[in-house]
Design brief:
Blueprint lengths: L2 H9 L15 H11 L6 H4 L4 E4 L21 H16 L3 E4 L5 H9 L1 H10 L1 H25 L3 E5 L12 H22 L4 E5 L8 H7 L3 E4 L7 H8 L4 E6 L1 H5 L4 H15 L5 E5 L9 H14 L10
Parallel strand pairs: 1-2, 3-4, 4-5, 5-6, 6-7
């Protein structure tokens, strides 16, 4: 079974040959691999046989002197064509393809108006908030939609709505101001290609809003930070309606632990999340220099050892 078939099968909540996996490395980790292997151009994902590759649309930075709230560059048709060609090449290799992440609507609001200004705007200036949300949502649709046009298997949207133990805002605030934006985005992407899988990124705690995401038509919750949410509850409660991508704790499993502890932590995660499909194994964040190289090796060894169906992952 090739990687693309494996990923799409698990996202259909069917059981593939093994759990698909990937990992987003820091630049330091990429450099470490190339040093270890004495190959200056070695691809990290190829070396570790990741099932998912990313394609990127490069948007220009805001020029000096231009108000950042007025800078909303749209993808160029030529760039979309280049991206489409890249997707086709990856598909020919049997790989699943995901669009790269561009910050979400709430995150863009914070970029434009700051954390405090964004969170107080519903009370201080709701008209400005409404207008800004409309503009940002249109902009994000053009970016995410470009990836869908390019033929990616997974389009990666989202918003960082969670803290370590709670949401950043009250659920009612999310549902009034931001859920309609996410609904518009999902609906427009489905118009382009109804079959595309939509992954929603959110760091931290987001359990309260998972029913909202399911109602919106989100296919995959990405990050799934195990330090912030009960992954056993998530799998039991929502695992038939939602796939999970991540779940291996960057703080609790991978950082400042021994390779043996990493192996055991990944094993425990797979026992919970893998049964029945609907799971892509990955750390819940891009790995930083806090994670030892030996732990990166151990993560990959553990997924290969314990992620094979119908072995131990079906014994839960």
């Amino acid at each position: 079974m090739d990687s693309r078939t494996r990923v799409m099968k698990t996202l259909a909540h069917e059981i593939p040959d093994r759990v698909p996996y990937n990992l987003r490395p820091s630049d330091e980790m990429v450099a470490r691999l190339r040093k270890e292997q004495s190959e200056s151009a070695l691809d990290f994902a190829d070396f570790f046989e990741h099932d998912i590759r990313y394609v990127y649309l490069q948007l220009p930075d805001c020029p000096a002197g231009v108000d950042i709230t007025e800078w909303v560059p749209r993808p160029d048709p030529g760039d979309i064509d280049v991206c489409r060609d890249r997707v086709r090449l990856l598909h020919k290799r049997g790989l699943a393809v995901c669009g790269s992440y561009f910050c979400g609507v709430f995150e863009q609001m914070k970029e434009w108006f700051g954390d405090v200004g964004t969170l107080t705007m519903p009370f201080d200036n709701p008209i400005l908030l409404e207008n800004a949300l409309d503009r940002i949502t249109d902009w994000k649709i053009s970016i995410y939609g470009a990836y869908v046009q390019a033929g990616v298997d997974i389009v990666w949207i989202g918003d960082d709505l969670g803290m370590q133990q709670n949401l950043i805002m009250r659920p009612e605030q999310y549902r009034k101001w931001y859920r309609p934006c996410h609904a518009r985005i999902v609906n427009e992407l489905r118009k382009i290609r109804p079959e595309v899988r939509i992954a929603f990124h959110c760091c931290g705690f987001v359990t309260t809003l998972i029913p909202d995401l399911i109602e919106l038509g989100i296919d995959i919750l990405e990050a799934v930070q195990a330090e912030c949410m009960d992954i056993r509850f998530l799998k039991k409660e929502y695992g038939r309606a939602l796939s999970f991508w991540g779940g291996v704790g960057a703080q609790s499993v991978l950082a400042r632990t021994t390779p043996e502890e990493v192996m055991e932590g990944v094993h425990r995660t797979l026992e919970i999340m893998a049964p029945g499909g609907g799971y892509i194994a990955a750390p819940c964040h891009t790995l930083t220099e806090e994670v030892e190289w030996e732990s990166v090796i151990a993560f990959h060894q553990a997924v290969r050892r314990y992620g094979v169906y119908p072995a131990e992952v079906t014994q839960n």
